[in-house]
Amino acid sequence: MTTLLDRVGGTRFVNDTVAEFYTAIGRHLSDQDRCDHHKQQSRQAQFLNHALSEPPEPVRSSRASFLARGLNPTLFEALLEFLEARLTELGFSCQLSSALMESASNLYSDCDPELAIAC
Predict the structure, then answer these.
(1) What would the pLDDT profile of 19-42 be if each residue is shown by its tens digit?
(2) Angle of helix 73-89 relative to helix 94-110, nearest 10 degrees?
(3) Which CATH number fits domain 4-115: 3.30.160, 1.10.3470, 2.40.320, 1.10.490?
């Protein structure tokens, strides 16, 4: 069975897309914000790769919860919107895009947001 991650091009695609997102918003950030956003970029890429790979262990896997703790909810939502637009731009099907967004959003929602530790 092919995972969502495989269907979009694997970890390289996800990592490159997250990097593109941060390049796009980078010109609007202060130097201090850029430092914090390198951590966000890494965490978001790891979380998306985890969410789109095999169905995450149980939905509330410890790895997903750990990664979600470091995510800024507003930036994560913006990244998902960017990723969805990027998939559309590249000609991926609406079904694949929807499945990807749903998988990532649901896993994030199932993690404990009150444990967020990074902005």
Answers:
(1) 999 888 877 766 666 666 778 888
(2) 170
(3) 1.10.490
